[in-house]
Amino acid sequence: MNTDFIERYITENFSEKRRKHTYGVRDTAVKLALKYGADPEKARVCALYHDMFRRASDEHIEECIKKNGLDPRYRGDADLAHSKIAAIYMKENMGIDDEDMLNAVSYHTTGRADMSVLEKVVFLADAIEPNRDYPSVGMLRELAEKDLDKACLVLLERTEGYLRTKGRTMDKDSIEAREYFRKVVESREMDNRELAMEAAKLLDLKKAENVLVIDVAEKSSFADFLVVASAGSERQAEALADDIEDKMAELGQNERLCEGRKKTGWVLLDFGDIIVNIFSRDMRDKYDLEKVWGDCDTVKVETEE
Ligand SMILES: [Fe+2]
Ligand SMILES: [Fe+2]
Questions:
Q1: Which residues pair with 275 in a beta bridge?
Q2: What does the DSSP 8-state code read for residue 232?
Q3: For position 305, what pLDDT does the model report?
Q4: Mean pLDDT of 109-114
Q5: CATH code at position 31
Q6: Residues 39 and 14 sit within 8 Å (Cβ to Cβ)
Q7: Rounded to the nearest whole angstrom, what is the distance from the C-alpha of residue 104 to the centroid of ligand 1?
Q8: Of 173, 188, 203, which closes a domain?
Q9: Separation of 108 CA from ligand 2 center, angstroms?
């Protein structure tokens, strides 16, 4: 993506401090993007634009509220409004219509619930780039190297604490983001047995048949728990697989690979320590996992009615 315009703008209009900050955000965002699988080029471009309107005047903000339907809560608040105005500018004036990029710039100050990887990368890079200097920045930099979600959570909690000392409250997008990341981090710390049970309960709730959780931790090197269920039809199996993917993603578990998804009568969803198997009735009988793992602890999951 051509960034001649914004780079010239930065050279001609930014203070030295803001210029250094912007390039610091760019380098950090690119590094984090490469590490966590976001597009580094998108991260670079977002970083260059992110503080373009950091010094937006009240008149400029007012104009954006009127013209672009910007939320009136940003009135007179350049600290928050500059992110929104930059995203609007990228779209309207630079023809950038990539939603993910626009969101990454738009939410770089507050964060929000359910951020994409690119959004998290830009949000964090803004806070931890090398020119930033505040007491917990070293710890945040280390955390960002290890755990993007946890780093976002700690940053939001830290921001909330800081604002509190100033007698201010956090923007509602940040509050929702903090709640979201708390949930993500907490559920990731759920143990594998609980996670397997969550998956099994969902399958049962969605009318899968004969739902079992088999504890194979002692006997197998590839997983700790197998969740096994049968579906009455191919369509139901597909729908159940989609539900499980959503639920597990919500719990911070991402699938490693997916086998036999289409019309084989066996959908296998691999979440590392937990493997969810959804069979057609025929295939369930054929493979008979209960028998294969007959000497393992098995829990049948059934809704009491
Ligand atoms: Fe900013
Ligand atoms: Fe910034």
A1: 226, 270
A2: S
A3: 58
A4: 97
A5: 1.10.3210.10
A6: no
A7: 11
A8: 188
A9: 8
Last residue of a domain, one of 167, 188, 209: 188
Domain of residue 225 covers 192-301
0.70 cut: is pTM over it? no
d(C-alpha 237, C-alpha 265), whole Å: 8
Q: Do 142 and 29 sit in the same domain of this protein?
A: yes
Report in angstroms the alpha-carbon separations of 34 from 41, 174, 289: 10, 25, 40
State in Å: Cα 204 to ligand 1 middle. 46
Sheet arrangement for strand 297-301 = 258-259, 266-270, 274-280, 225-231, 209-215, 297-301
CATH code of 293's domain: 3.30.460.10
Q: How far is the CA of 82 from the centre of ligand 1 (A)?
A: 7
Ligand 2 centroid – CA 14 distance (Å): 12
Q: Give the number of the ligand closest to the Cα of residue 47.
A: 2
The ligand whose atoms approach the alpha carbon of 109 most closely is 1
Q: Are 96 and 223 members of one domain?
A: no
| Distance of alpha carbon 158 from alpha carbon 140, whole angstroms | 10
- Ligand 2 midpoint to CA 84 (Å): 13
Task: Using DSSP bridges, classify how beta strands 209-215 and 258-259 pair: parallel, antiparallel or unpaired.
Answer: unpaired
Q: What total of structural domains would you count in the chain?
A: 2
> Is residue 92 classed exposed, middle or buried when 0-12, 13-18 and 19+ CB atoms within 10 A define those classes?
exposed
| Confidence class for position 257, pLDDT limits 50, 70, 90 | low
Strands, DSSP E only, in the chain?
209-215, 225-231, 258-259, 266-270, 274-280, 297-301
In the structure encoding, which two tokens stand for residue 290, read together?
A: 């209960």
